[in-house]
Amino acid sequence: MNMLKQRNRIEGENLKMSTLANIDWDNIGFKYMQTDLRYLATWKDGLWDEGRLVKDNMLSIGECAPALHYGQQCFEGLKAYRTKTGDIQLFRATENAKRFNRSASRLLMPEIPEAMFLDAVLQVVRANAAYVPPYGSGATLYIRPFMLGVGNYIAAGPAPEYLFSVFCFPVGPYFKGGMTPVNFMVSDFDRAAPYGTGAAKVGGNYAASFYPNKLAKDSGFADCIYLDPLTHTKIEEVGAANFFGITRDNEFVTPASPSILPSITKYSLLYLSREYLSLKATERDVLIDNLAEFKEAGACGTAAVITPIGGIQYKGKLHVFHSETEVGPITKKLYDTLCAIQFGDMEAPSGWIIKV
Ligand code: PLP
Ligand code: COI
Q: Is 168 helix (H, G, I), strand (E, B) or coil?
């Protein structure tokens, strides 16, 4: 066995045996919690420094940092899962590294070598292993890598320096019901412009969604559904998650659009539908006037996992899919398959899992 393998094995055993933090894992919700260590690296004069784990959860940046004024920042969201044997694993983290770099390039920020991104994530998860929720609790460790344009630069242009950080905290379900269906409302607002930054995971897209989200919540909905910004006839996204529907002849359908975030969960479900559930699975237009083609619908994403959609409110009418109170059978099967892979109960497609 080579040295690296041996070291990983020993670290792995230590992680497995690490005592868990004293937390009520069943009731943590989706809220920030300060954990022990986070990763911080800086970019200057064309180079990233080595990066390090730090205790302090406060950042010190100049008042004129472009991230603060012009929103030059991007981020990712991924999770670590505790398996039945106590091991810890990441789900499709390489895809997050790739998307992070696409987001960074869109805002003229430097890329992070994929190996550096993954190493930072692994260091942070190992350093905070006590916060990876126990198997069976349903909770997971949410990991948030982000990059900020810093250095004092006031012209509307890219920053002279950058910070890359990764922190993590344990989470429960993003939408309150978990696997109980929730209702959504179609918004009159757009989340992204037709040729804008919708496909990049950048803060500006999210700030723009707070107001429509509040309107939906004030009306009793879990969040809003955005239509395509050009024609307002097709479903784009479900708040901070992608949409999928199951047609009456059992096809998994999810919107194809250049202005939605290309969800890693969505691409995983397209694959699992075809390869594990033997369903036809398609990315195509989803017309808001043709919701009746679906017998089930759901929202999918890292935070949302799979959240069944009970109904969608559009032009004053609520269109109900399978049920407002019970998850449909195909949505449930997709959820069970996805979770079984993420928590290590089912063999994953090659390259999907990284052992911590
Ligand atoms: N859409 C938006 C706007 C999101 O913020 C997210 C969350 O990351 C998703 C979709 C789902 O993407 P993923 O499955 O990669 O987490
Ligand atoms: C995620 O699912 O990882 C997201 O980034 C959504 C966020 C609003 C929590």
A: strand
